[in-house]
Specification:
Blueprint lengths: L2 H6 L6 E4 L6 H10 L3 E4 L4 E3 L5 H8 L6 E4 L2 H14 L10 E4 L2 H9 L4 E3 L6 H8 L7 E7 L5 H8 L3 E11 L5 H9 L7 E4 L2 H10 L8 H4 L3 E4 L2 H9 L6 E2 L5 H10 L1 H5 L2
Parallel strand pairs: 1-2, 1-9, 4-5, 4-7, 5-6, 7-8, 9-10, 10-11
Antiparallel strand pairs: 3-8
Helix pairs in contact: 3-4, 4-5, 6-7, 9-11
């Protein structure tokens, strides 16, 4: 068996639970399946429109007043696309902006709208966005398009730098009620229980815990024999906050990076 064939079968027989939102699971699932993994898809998160698009619409109608636009996820870009079409706002109206996109997927989605990305921080976390903008935004107006609930480090630090930062909600994340019974059933069944559970954001961690009964529920038995794989340090910190172990953490905070990290951990997975 050559190296390529060997790698394709590297995770053969390993059950991996993918908890991404239903419409986003395919990329991670496909990468794991290509390595031979048995993928179980149960979404820990559901993406919904915000309670109101009014704040986003108002900001887009006044986009000429901003100097910077920060996009933190593909979900935010998709919402931007929807509202630009609805309001008949063309990409040319964004030409004066310097646009920051977190991560290659967000950058690609942004560029697919015909918008030019000026900065993609070296690390795909809020702290890296802040460092990338240090010394560049003083006295300028910044529009941050993000989820309804998110860490406040970016707007807080931008304001400390002397920028005027407007934060608008483009979408919200909720716990998918339909996943509760399925997840509890899979995690309690020794014949179906995953050997690896993937987490791609802090929200997926919080919702995983909620779907299994919340903080008060003892997760020791449920998580016994399972390796938890995190996409990056912020997600890992949330796992630890809930008393859950971090066995795998991606060096590059992307789906490809998470896949590589799981592959690198295969010996530990197979010997549990």
């Amino acid at each position: 068996m050559n190296t390529v064939e060997s790698e394709k079968k590297a995770l053969a027989g390993v059950r991996v639970l993918v908890g991404r939102a239903r419409h986003q699971a395919s990329k991670l699932s496909a990468a794991l399946k290509a390595l031979g993994a048995d993928v179980i898809e149960i979404p820990f998160i559901e993406i919904r429109p915000p309670r109101s698009y009014k704040p986003l619409d108002t900001a887009l109608k006044r986009v000429s007043e901003y100097d910077w636009l920060i996009l933190t996820s593909v979900n935010g870009v998709e919402a931007l696309d929807i509202r630009m079409r609805r309001l008949q706002i063309s990409p040319e109206q964004f030409a004066h902006l310097r646009i920051v996109a977190i991560g290659p997927s967000t950058r690609k989605a942004t560029e697919n709208l015909g918008l030019k990305v000026s900065i993609m921080p070296p690390k795909y976390v809020a702290e890296s966005v802040v460092e990338s903008l240090r010394g560049k935004v003083g006295g300028q107006r910044v529009l941050l398009v993000r989820a309804a609930v998110a860490r406040d480090i970016i707007p807080r630090e931008l304001r400390r730098m002397g920028a005027s930062a407007d934060v608008v909600e483009a979408y919200e994340t909720v716990v998918p009620a339909s996943s509760k019974k399925r997840l509890q059933s899979v995690m309690k069944d020794p014949n179906r229980k995953p050997q690896v559970v993937t987490f791609t954001s802090s929200s997926t961690v919080r919702n995983f815990v909620e779907l299994l009964g919340g903080r008060e529920q003892r997760l020791d038995n449920i998580s016994d024999g399972v390796r938890f794989a995190s996409i990056g340090p912020i997600t890992s910190a949330t796992l630890r906050e809930f008393g859950l172990p971090v066995h795998v953490e991606a060096a590059e905070y992307t789906i490809a990076g998470l896949t590589r990290a799981i592959l690198a951990d295969k010996q530990q997975i197979l010997h549990r």
